[in-house]
Write a structure and sequence with these properties.
Chains A, B: InterPro entries: Aminotrans_V_dom (IPR000192), PyrdxlP-dep_Trfase (IPR015424), PyrdxlP-dep_Trfase_major (IPR015421), PyrdxlP-dep_Trfase_small (IPR015422), SP_NH2Trfase/AEP_transaminase (IPR024169). Chains A, B: Residues 40-337 form the Aminotransferase class V domain. Chains A, B: Its EC number is 2.6.1.112. Two copies of one chain form a homodimer. In chain A, 43% of the residues lie in helices and 15% in strands. Chain A has 14 helices and 13 strands. In chain A, strands 2-10-9-8-5-3-4 form a seven-stranded mixed β-sheet, sandwiched between helices. In chain A, strands 1-12-13-11 form a four-stranded mixed β-sheet. A two-stranded antiparallel sheet of chain A has the order 6-7. Chain A folds into two domains: 22-268, 3-Layer(aba) Sandwich (Aspartate Aminotransferase, domain 2), CATH 3.40.640.10; 271-391, Aspartate Aminotransferase, domain 1 (Alpha-Beta Complex). In chain A, α11 (272-292) packs antiparallel against α14 (380-391) and α13 packs antiparallel against α14. Chain A has helices spanning 23-29, 39-56, 70-81, 95-106, 124-133, 155-164, 184-187, 213-220, 233-240, 254-270, 272-292, 319-330, 357-373, 380-391, and strands at 12-14, 62-66, 87-92, 110-115, 139-143, 145-146, 151-152, 168-172, 191-193, 207-211, 308-312, 332-336, 345-349. Chain A has 392 residues and is α/β, with parallel strands linked by helices. The interface between A and B is large, with 81 and 81 residues.
């Protein structure tokens, strides 16, 4: 069979994630592997926790990266906070709300779903009505930034509702962290998970999580053991605990954590507010350019995620043909639609290191070329000019 | 707070894992990140499956790496094969047998434990007696290579017993794959998991698994949904399925998989039999050197793992002092004992790229120096001479 080493081309990643990985982070991945109990590595773990507290804007002691992708971070939140028989209110406005329901039912709990149109934000008034109707909701779960549609929900209002009705909140911040404000302590969010491969511009595979004191108290007061050994926060805490002795749990993904550490150092260097501002500015530039191309957004203004732009595919333009053209001719990746939006929309990511003017320029030119090939009238040059003007 | 980039020193890793990572693998980790649905990446996933089939010596279609460390691979096997109310016979001769019991009970199943002294292999006669006593065992679970003690059990005999008593087998091959013969199809093992950071010499964070047709049939015949969404093989299969369309499940850890692919290419280049032979030869050399130093093995000859050598700490020599000396003066890591063996033994790994004569030479000299510092009489030079002689 004789399979050879794999040498990938250099792509520009403007889909829903992974985003472009900064060269400093790629370089960190290949540094010499340390033992996972080496005092120097343990020191790096402590630094990573501090940096994550900054990224989450929290003082929560239980703040660390789960050694697996974001969907494992989601599961970590659910299996630790939810017990058999519990009632969980889940807001569904895209793919990831549905996945939350899967998690709830697999915990032996009851999911009460509140649906919203895909492409819209979660509406707090509807959530409050549902919380009132069901007096005994233990957990309110929602997606802050829906990666499947590009809608941003009001996490502050929703976490406030959870507190008002004495429920815990679980917040999916996979795509929001580093791209838009995420203020865990100020909003009093209880369990929040994110992903390494979105606005942190790190490689995929790690899921930062944070748990409030109330969440930790709920975990400690559980009547049933956590159904997952790998994701049991009681055990993970012993491994990631502050300084000193580490209780062996699993073997940490050492080199992947080098990458996450470097990405968080870069976020600290740029400053969170500056990173949010950069994502907002680049979104404005992209939107101005897409407007010139006659491309419309799925999500209405005011609810749009700057870092994940869902747009309708124009009439007469084919989804797969276009994406294949971009990949083949420009080494450029954009995302397809998911679920009901498959074939109808593209998802254009401006996350982390991908949120740069040179990426936007490439995208607008390449997209115009792809559509022109299919007989659609547009000018990439004019789109770029509009994008540049919007930046000023 | 201002935390800087992390620059680890170059250590020699001769503990229980991670082992030394080959420079080719470190280099692969930093290659440009592709989208996880990019056709080129999907092609690499298919190659990785083929290479894993070779490493497992299986034709099982359901052979792939779980996107998380070995303990998640263990959990994947248990949550997919075990249902509430099932009876699982678990052989316990070290830390990882105990962890299997944790997995069984968290699945709502009953664990029947058969204990063996730590440092000994699992005794098939005792297992057969237990299988006879409990007529309705659904799964027999055991550890092929106990990383906590260095004992190698007869996986062929144990898988044969499972078949004889109409049970499925779950085999922990975390430390065995690539270091000693592991013949999944010939032995008719049903669910086997391994780790990337042992004899494959890759970085930690991935867990290769393989499931037989009988195991797949059991998964498909389940009465209850798999309690983990992230580890549900029905869903993972859709993502890693053969060629063509991939159903989105989670975002694969792209760069970590570059590393695993490269490590498997290297295993293919060396040849499995040659890799096994190299581990055996290096073990013989190490054993000859340790003998000169007056250091005794925990496990009796014939049951010893070549790649993981548990040895008693000599009288008058302190565990922590010695390991700190090795790390500080030689940048050399060896492993501590776990559980009842803590403070009494060292675990010396000769896994993958660590199984080289230059590592053995360094270890023998460094260990002799550390013990001499503590007043123990020995000669590192003589130990090295004996090790070299044993190689011829």
């Amino acid at each position: 069979m004789a399979i050879s080493s794999f040498h990938p081309p250099v792509r520009t990643l403007m889909g829903p994630g992974p985003s472009d990985v900064h060269p400093r982070i790629l370089s960190a991945l290949g540094r010499p592997t340390l033992g996972h109990l080496d005092p120097l590595f343990v020191g790096m773990m402590d630094e990573t926790k501090e940096l994550l507290k900054y990224a989450f804007q929290t003082r929560n002691e239980l703040t660390l990266p789960i050694s697996a992708p974001g969907s494992a971070g989601m599961e970590a939140c659910f299996v630790n906070l939810v017990e058999p028989g519990d009632k969980v209110l889940v807001c569904v406005n895209g793919v990831f709300g549905n996945r939350m329901i899967e998690n709830v039912t697999r915990c032996g709990a009851t999911a009460v779903r509140v649906d919203f149109p895909w492409g819209s934000a979660v509406e707090p008034a509807a959530v409050e009505a549902a919380l009132k109707e069901h007096g005994d909701v233990k957990v309110l779960a929602f997606v802050h930034a829906e990666t499947s549609t590009g809608a941003l929900s009001d996490a502050q209002a929703l976490c406030g509702l959870a507190k008002k009705y004495k429920a815990l909140s679980i917040v999916d911040a996979v795509t929001s962290m580093g791209g838009v404000p995420l203020l865990v302590d100020e909003w009093q969010a209880d369990a929040v998970y994110s992903g390494s491969q979105k606005c942190l511009s790190c490689t995929p595979g790690l899921s930062p999580v944070t748990f409030s004191d109330a969440a930790v108290a709920a975990i400690k007061a559980r009547q049933h053991p956590v159904q997952s050994w790998f994701l049991d926060m009681n055990l993970i805490l012993g491994y990631w605990g502050e300084g000193g002795k580490r209780a062996y749990h699993h073997t940490a993904p050492v080199n992947a954590l080098y990458g996450l550490h470097e990405s968080l150092v870069m976020l600290q260097e740029e400053g969170l507010e500056n990173a949010w501002q950069r994502h907002a500015s680049m979104h404005n530039a992209l939107a101005a350019g897409l407007d010139v191309l006659g491309i419309q957004f799925v999500v209405e203004e005011g609810q749009r995620l700057p870092q994940l732009n869902s747009v309708y595919i124009p009439d007469g333009v084919d989804d797969a043909t276009t994406r294949q053209f971009l990949l083949a001719k420009y080494d450029l990746e954009i995302g397809a639609g998911l679920g009901d939006l498959a074939g109808k929309v593209w998802r254009i990511g401006l996350m982390g290191y991908s949120a740069r003017m040179e990426n936007i320029t490439l995208l607008l030119k390449a997209l115009a070329a792809a559509m022109t090939e299919q007989g659609y009238q547009c000018s990439g040059e004019q789109a770029v000019t509009a994008a540049e003007a919007a930046l000023k």
